[in-house]
Amino acid sequence: MEINEQIKKLIGENDICLFLKGTPDAPQCGFSMAVSNVLKHLNVKFKGINILEDEHLRKGIKEFSDWPTIPQLYVKGEFVGGCDIVKEMFEKGELKKLFEEKKLI
Amino acid sequence: MPLPINEITKLIKESIPDASIEIKDLKGDSNHYAATIKSKLFNNLSKIDQHKMVYKSLKGKMGNELHALSITTESK
User: What is the second-level CATH architecture of the domain A2-101?
Assistant: First the structure.
């Protein structure tokens, strides 16, 4: 339960929260880098959480989202998707629209 | 442990029988794939739920034996 509380706090306190391998400036995996770059490109402020620093969090986030892979993007507390979905939304202009709707850009 | 394409196709077909599946081995190492999957079962599901259905069909192999599988899902 404790890890779930920690995750709820993170996604509650940060409007755009990206769980990734590494940091936004030094991603340790191509998929994490791709999502970081999309967010940077859209010029939104986001919190990067490096799951490689915390094994409990790494396992916990997968269970919390019922999603087996990293990265994972949360916007306003809601799970948006992993790398494939985020890239697809970006390409279709849907990600920008989502951020606009949530008044984040 | 790499997972061959025919094994991935078989697993997905078991859960999503009507699926049209196209898988590319991106690096030729049986470890980095891109899959496009079309199924009627995806109709009216969110992208998140469509991808979850594919992940579930792989029975926990995603993120373990299977390191990298990009997924594109489409309804039929």
Answer: 3-Layer(aba) Sandwich (3.40)
CB-CB: which of A66, A68, A85 is closest to B63?
Answer: A68
pLDDT tens digit string along A91-104?
A: 999 999 999 999 99
Instruction: Choose, out of A58, A85, A92, the residue to mutate when testing the contact with B (most B CBs < 10 Å).
Output: A85
ipTM of model: 0.92
Every domain of chain A and the residues it spans: 2-101
A80 min Cα distance to partner chain B (Å): 8
- Which H/E stretch holds residue A13? helix A2-13
Structural domains in chain B (count): 1
Of B48, B63, B72, the CB nearest to A69: B63
**Model pTM?**
0.95
Rg (CA), chain B: 12
CATH number of the domain bearing residue B24: 3.30.300.90
